[in-house]
Amino acid sequence: MLTEIDIERLPSFSIGFERGEEKGEEKGLEKGKAQIMRRLLSQLSVAEVSELLGLTPEDVERMVATGSDDDPVHGRH
């Protein structure tokens, strides 16, 4: 009869842990990009930022919206 299972030694635990780390890193990168984008947009218009970064204006707007869970952008150029 099993009395104790060390879940950290199960292969499924390792797989889930690695996936969680990857998702956390991706989310952090997206938030960082959005934060930089918001800072640029505080000084430049969407058109200027998109030209500077080689992105479409839609991509700039999407990137800002993606990372703006706690800091929405309103009234930008």
Annotation keywords:
disordered C terminus; 77 residues; 0% strand; mainly alpha
Number of strands: 0
Order of helices and strands: HHH
Gross morphology = rod-shaped
Number of helices in the DSSP assignment? 3
Structural class, judged by helices and strands?
A: mainly alpha
Low-confidence stretches: 70-77
Strand content: under 5%
The major sheet is characterized as: none
Radius of gyration: 20 Å
Gap from first CA to last CA: 67 Å
Can you give the helix content as a percent range?
55-70%
Mean pLDDT: 82
Please give a quick description of this structure:
With 77 residues, the protein is an all-alpha fold. It has 3 helices and no strands.
Protein described:
This protein has three helices and no strands. It is mainly α and 77 residues long. The protein has a domain at 26-69.
Give the helix/strand layout:
Layout: H1 11-41, H2 46-53, H3 57-66
Helix pairs in contact: 1-3, 2-3
